[in-house]
Amino acid sequence: MFLSRTPVLPTPEQALPGRAEPEFSVPARHTVLGNPLVGPYPEGLEVADFALGCFWGAERKFWQTEGVWTTLVGYQGGFTRNPSYEEVCSGLTGHTEVVRVVFDPSEVSYETLLKLFWESHDPTQGFRQGNDVGTQYRSALYTHSPAQAAAAEASRAAYQKVLTGSGHGEITTHVLPAADRPFYPAEAYHQQYLDKNPAGYCGIGGTGVSCPIGVAKAEG
Fold it and tell me: Where is this region: Disordered (predicted)?
């Protein structure tokens, strides 16, 4: 099944078991923003999780956004505990590559981050982004509050309207609560990869269709 040309998510029974503790440590601070990578985070900040293909280029999109306090990349939405990059890429963990964004809502709204999310990738491609094929490249939003969930669902509906009007297909992005889907930080060399390797691979590319921020107006 996992060697077929069409990626398939494993069931919990098929997934690798993983391990109780990670096999690697995460750097203390963000190489660009200088703030801690792993929480607890200062009071007043919010956390949001975005999956939009290869996390190297995706993370850079977010750390370049004003109001973002820190970013880190990792794995989420699967079954394997504390997976490695190689295990995730095998398709046997069920995880997707995710950017965790810690932001100050007084400086940047979750809706603005959603706009960046939608416009930075093609959310209609299922288990792929461009030439990157695999379940780990699927599009997803893992929400941390009812307000985030409502905003994510509304933005998906609004963006579907403009995508449909531009001749694109159905959005395949999952909107799911983060509470039941642990985030596992990725290995140190993945964190801020494109800061350490400015000429490194970046597979991020959108549809060219603008996402309306004013969700209520867009739905009218």
Answer: 1-21
Supply 103's token pair. 């932001």
**CB-based burial, 62-86: b 16+ in 10 Å, e otherwise:** bbebeebbbbbbbbbbbbbbbbbee
Could you say which DSSP state residue 135 is in? G
Q: Which residue, 155, 67, 138, 154, is CA-closest to 108?
A: 67
- With bands split at pLDDT 50, 70 and 90, how would you rate the model's confidence at 76? very high
Check residue 16 and give left, alpha or beta (phi > 0: left; psi -120 to 50: alpha): beta
Would you call 141 helix, strand, or coil by DSSP? strand
- Can you tell me the distance from the alpha carbon of 163 to that of 159, in angstroms, rounded to the nearest whole number? 6
Q: Judge whether 218 and 212 are in contact, CB under 8 Å.
A: yes
Tracing tokens 């996992």 back to the chain, one arrives at 2
* Chain-centre distance for alpha carbon 120: 11
Q: Specify the pTM.
A: 0.93
Helices (H), 26-145: 55-63, 85-89, 110-119
Separation of alpha carbons 54 and 118, rounded Å: 14
Residue-wise pLDDT for 102-125, tens only, equals 999 999 999 999 999 999 999 999
State the DSSP code for 54.
Answer: -
Say how far apart CA 136 and CA 124 lie, in whole Å. Answer: 15
| CA dist list (Å): 84 to 87, 89, 119, 126 | 5, 9, 29, 23
Known catalytic residues are 54
Whole-number Å distance between alpha carbons of 25 and 52 = 24
- The three-state secondary structure class of 152 is helix
